[in-house]
User: What shape does this take?
Amino acid sequence: MNAPVPIADARAAAREPHYNFAYLDERTKRMIRRAILKAVAIPGYQVPFGSREMPLPYGWGTGGIQVTAALIGPRDVLKVIDQGADDTVNAVNIRRFFQRTTGVAITERTDEATLIQTRHRIPETPLAAGQIIVYQVPVPEPLQRLEPREAEARRMHALGEYGLMHVKLYEDIARYGRISTAYDYPVMVHGRYLMSPSPIPKFDNPKMHMSPALQLFGAGREKRIYAVPPWTRVESLAFEDHPFQAEKRASRCSLCGSGESFLDEVIADDRGARLFLCSDTDYCRQRRGADA
Amino acid sequence: MSEPLLRAAGVTKRYGARTAVDEVALELWPGEVMAVVGESGSGKTTLLDCLSGRLRPDAGRVEYQTRHEGLKDLYALSEAECRLLARTDWGYVHQSPDQGLRMGVSAGANVGERLMALGARHYGRIRGEAADWLVRVEMDPLRIDESPRGFSGGMRQRLQIARNLVTRPRLVFMDEPTSGLDVSVQAKLLDLLRSLTRSLPLAAIVVTHDLAVARLLAHRMMVMKDGRAVESGLTDQVLDDPQHPYTQLLVSSVLQP
Assistant: This one.
């Protein structure tokens, strides 16, 4: 995992001619693009779309894959990450899927990518204008746990009645003395729509605020697409006397020594020894490269 | 004040060929408690739903005295206005507290929900207000973090009342608030309701089949039969000198201890 992926190799991977470019047929892609345009026009609003059957099961990122497939072009450079890492099962499979169906260039470097599909993390390297990040979303409706009736939840969105979300945070503080929600932490987008940021750690929430990149969210099973356009306000919910805090371990990465990145805990042996590593493998590698 | 808080005229609701509520008219004045009595199926609850904006009547008008804009037709309000009214200026106490409470969250969160819906974002203050209301409905404020699942029926009903009154509404709709409770708990709850309606001041429409509830709580009462209001007047007057044969039957069928 230490050797950078030779990009030339990736380019060499030829596109399989049996499939349409990026797997989906052109009319489906247009349908998804229309949903994306609407989502960008109404930041944070969940746009329904006709989610297709994909050649992998729900929960593996079918929503994100369809959004990526609708956007990707032959000149794009694709990066796929799963929990911050480029080399885990979900990321490897989705990357290979797009290599086979599009033949586009792939990369592990955040700053080289034009299109990033992610599951559960936002890269540590700040995103730049012109980049698009696509999130895989299991549950797009932030109110689902609190208001199981979908029609009622949509009415609450329409009328901006979001007191219920604070009831949940209240309950957290009453029970644990602090807001214990650690991932999928609810946000208000552009001061209007309540949005689930997908199960990213709340450590990543501040990165969504006023990001220069376009952020798109796809939920395949729930058939919803939503978006945060560049330079949009994204505020994490909180109470005045219990403000939002991005959680961070006190430790440092054992490989690159970073004290700023989001860390994964790794059990090192049978005696309970543990070490911490950057969850963003590319960030960690760049730092080590710079040190050397 | 020269205008009523709530005015209904010709309210009619049909379910297919059957008429559940037939041309009912009433006026409720600020601070007044009105009881609607009648047997099961007489249209009491349907009338309450029509009056509280939950069920659009097929004919008739329901007007409410809004705080800033005078009498307004309820069914001409936008959905957003109507819902805002329902969670600020009104309360709705369900017969079964499970319907009116969020059983999954603590007592404090139940009471604080309306405050948070109105934009309260200070945890300490929300909690203080919730504890305050628990005391006012004679509950132990130390149980603020407990789930209503662990509460008795009487306590749940009290919690439901606190949850409704926290925004200091001017009008509360109650659908059989004491049925389903045992007799001594009923008496305590009625006592609480009576002191709350007096001290706040609070107008209320109480639907009940229990004449004792009407006598204890209500200034005025209305008797319904087959969807029609057959008799209405001051509570004591109706109960002591019933005019309509049905009211006479109702009054005479109460057991005298």
